[in-house]
Amino acid sequence: MALYGEDDMTSKTHGSRTARIAARGFLSTVAGFALLYGASAATGQAFAQITAADSEQAADQLSEREQSNTLSLEEIVVTGRPGGAGMKKLDASFAITTMNNDAINKFAPKSTADLLKAVPGVWAESSGGESGANIFVRGFPGAGDAEFVTIQVDGMPIFPPPTLSFLENSSLFRIDETVERMEALRGGPNPVFSNGQPGVTVNFIQKQGGPETEGILKLSGTDFGEKRVDVQMSGPLADDLFYSFGGFYRTSNGIRDAEFNSERGGQISANITKLFDNGQINVYTRFLDDRGAWLLPIPLLSDENGNIEEFPGFDRGTGNLIGNGNRLGVIETGRNGETRRLDLADGRGAETFMIGGSAEFEFDGGWTIREKFNYMSGDADTIGLVPANTPRTLGDILAGIDTNGVGGTFTFTESGEQITDLSQQALTAGMWSVEKDIESFTNDFSVAKDLFEGNTFTVGLYISDYSSNDLWFLGNDQLLAAEENARRIDLSLNDGTQVTRNGFIGAPFFDVNAAYNGRNIAAYFADEWQITPDLRIDAGFRIENQNVDATLENVDFGVDLDDDPTTLFNNNAAILNGSFRTINFDETETSWTIGANYNLNQDMAIFARVNNGQKFPQFDNLRDGADGIQSIDQYEVGLKASTDMVSVFATLFYNDFTGLPEQRFIDGENVVIISGSNAIGVEGEFVVRPFEGMSLALTGTWQDAEFDGKSVNDGNRVQRQPKLQLRFTPSYDIALPWGFATLYGTFTHVGDRFSDSENQQVLEDYQKLDAGVVMDVDNWTFQVTADNLTDSHGLTEGNPRVLGAQTGTAIFARPILGRSFRFSLSYNF
């Protein structure tokens, strides 16, 4: 990875990085196939016969559509199970949401995080674009990112730490036609299995091949100019060997038009499945190279009562500060003219290679062995335009800088045109550069034994090894006109003082050069006992050690980069100084869970569960000296039921959170206080089918989450999360002579929230309406979806860099994305 001090027009060379990833990927793929295939050579012939459903008749298709409008309690789920062993959803003693490929396509998510809006108990802010979402779970406290969310592929974490600064798990995965279904497990046995995530584990299960050759070719477009192609195909290579491959590519300027191709990239993935008499092996690989603009708060107006209005000339739904006038920049990173060239088109995304696999074999005597692994390597960089100071007139800006009253001149940087109207609104926004070179290997091996009739004991070993090499330059503020696709502005004072250079009014204020390495080793034990035909209990225990070591370069603050006080643009800078410090962390903790499920009849069950989980500090926590381990106790009771007319899955939950670090100034010193929070709530999924073809679905969460008595913010609501959120989706399937059609819509209500833990920045409640139609004719499918049909402008984030209430002034905040339409045409074969 390139460090500071390179040539002033040199940036990170993505081409050579791609070559390195591809080379490593090819070698890893060959090694993985050889390892798994060779290990199974003597095991036998076909494990199970895969059959394909006959879907050529319209009546059968309608029946399948009606079945998809249930909660699929007879479906087999594998997430949160020891070693990934399957179990009927009705028999599971935990809260889990499932969505198949058809349901995902109907939802038409704009990103991986956007899909999580369909999961009760989860609050997802996807207004930041394809990457960089904020995702919260069941009132767990957090300032942003996705601290309690793990994204899996086929039961293995993509990257074991749920969140690092500028990197949350959903940024590393893209949904396409290679996904068979999603499973989202909240709480439950999460603290014991996988990476021990106590919040939510979202498992994307890939399509595998079968005895019939089949596939899909899909072309999509939008009213804002996106073009996308998806392809997926699967079939047999031999009687007991099957393949599946697919991917996508897309390109656009984005809903918030950046004036250039800011959303671009794609993904390629493939897997092979080998069946045996007593088991199977699957190996997969995925290559992702996709990025998009990091969408951040925009200028808005807030009156004395906090009512939000549009900033003059800036559309709330489609406006973007990013544009051709500020796309490229050269930032100063150190003394002697050290610089870096940045391009906002690089945006926020990932360029990664992944290989993984699984094996499962059953043996005489009730023994089962399961093995899963995943290796991932690549880059997850961020180049973003981050708002700093809210809009003010140029006159106010000049008055704040020109303390001697000498006067000054404003000009547009690109054109050189002088600005004489000092009532022109302007703002500052930083060009932040964050480079992350990440790598991880995870492995989960388990052995299960049927001890006696109805009782299975499992012991497993989980190992993860992961690293992140970081290079950050935060700050680099620019003076911009307060307008869409903002132009840069230069200011020079009449006494010769240069306030800006090429529009830049500041240097980096925070730098990081760090190499982090982490390793987690956990042993877990689980026992399941079917005591009676209707009563099943399970328990699990995990003991885990985390070891982290890191080397970080020290930073000098308040440096004048050219020792010239008349060039204000590079005064008060932060620079890496060539000296280093180290971090070492080594701790062991335990987690546990106990649950029970009781079937009241063949269509209805109740369950109860209690667990205790831990959250180890991650790299950024340790860099900032926060090495405490947070503990979460969770309690759940739930009801599941499904009849011909009604399906219900409802869960009452309570959690108690301790070990939360909070900063407080006492007698002028920054003191860290360890506090906590608690939350009580109910989450549910309900489907009513009043007559053939019609379904009425309701998904919702009500929760009351607040900081406890030890907190600086005792009694305040946990920030960013609504008390109430609801999604109501009516859907009507119509059988037609030439096929069938589905009409559907979704009404979403999001309750009010607070952007800050001090509960001073109110984010008002809002409503949103989506709609769509799907038509199937023979092998063709045509779909139209309308997102935010009424062009709602609900806010998901205030300005996290400003403390206190934001009323009676121009502010920064991030509204949801404006109205858009997507059209797709698919050919299924």
UniProtKB/TrEMBL annotation:
The keyword Mitochondrion does not apply. It comes from the Bacteria. Keywords: Cell outer membrane, Ion transport, Iron, Iron transport, Membrane, Receptor, Signal, TonB box, Transmembrane, Transmembrane beta strand, Transport. InterPro entries: Beta-barrel_TonB, Beta-barrel_TonB_sf, Plug_dom, Plug_dom_sf, TonB-dep_rcpt-like. It is a multi-pass membrane protein. PROSITE patterns: TONB_DEPENDENT_REC_3. Its main location: membrane. Pfam families: Plug, TonB_dep_Rec_b-barrel. Residues 314-789 form the TonB-dependent receptor-like beta-barrel domain. GO terms for cellular component: cell outer membrane. It is found in: Cell outer membrane. Residues 89-199 form the TonB-dependent receptor plug domain. GO terms for molecular function: siderophore uptake transmembrane transporter activity. Belongs to the TonB-dependent receptor family. This is TonB-dependent receptor. It comes from Iodidimonas nitroreducens. The gene is fhuA_1.
